[in-house]
Fold this sequence. Notes:
The chain is mainly alpha-helical. The protein has one domain: Aminoglycoside phosphotransferase (APH), C-terminal lobe (Aminoglycoside 3'-phosphotransferase, Chain: A, domain 2, Alpha-Beta Complex). The protein contains 7 helices and 4 strands; from the N terminus they run αααββββαααα. The chain has helices at residues 2-7, 22-32, 37-46, 88-103, 105-118, 127-137, 148-166; strands at 56-58, 67-70, 73-77, 84-86. The two termini are 28 Å apart. The mean pLDDT is 90. It comes from Cytobacillus oceanisediminis. One of its GO terms (molecular function) is transferase activity. Keywords: Transferase. This is Phosphotransferase family enzyme.
Amino acid sequence: MELAKIHRLDISKYNLTFLPRKEEMFAEMLEKVDADDAVLEALKSVFPLPERNTDVLLHGDYWPGNILWSDGKIVSIIDWEDAWIGDPLADLANGRLEILFQLGKDAMIYFTEQYKSVMTKVDYSNLPYWDLWAALRLSKFTEWELDENILKTMKERINWFISQAID
C-alpha cells in the first residue's frame, strides 16, 4: 500500500519546513469555501480537531490518476504540488473520495480496509471529519465541465459520502 509507505516516512530526517501544516490548510478552507451548510457546520463544530495522530508527509492529492503503473506495478506517484504535513487521515479521506468517484463504493471500502490493515497504530476516530473535509475540498467538481452522466454519478457518490460521514 503506497499511501501507507508515504505516511511511514520518518519526516524528522528531512527539512520539510517549506510545506504548509494542516492547521493552516484547514482554517483557510473553512473560511473561503461555499459548501453544504451541514458539512460546514459539522466541521466548524469540531475545529480544530483534537490531535490523535502523529503528523506525517501528506501527498495532498492521492488518487488513481496520480499513480503511474508499469507491468502491473506502481512505479511512481506524481503531482506533489498539494503536499503538506498533517494527520494521515487527511490523505486517506481524500483517496477514499477520489476512489469512490472513479471506481465506486466497493473499491473505496477495499482501499480503506487495506490502509487500515497496514496502518494499525493510526487512530481512525476522526475519519468522518476528514471525509467531510475531503468532500468540502472536492466540492468544486461540478465546475470541471464533465459529461452529464459522470457528473450525475459523482453527485450521487459525494452525497452518499457526506451522509455516511455525518451519520
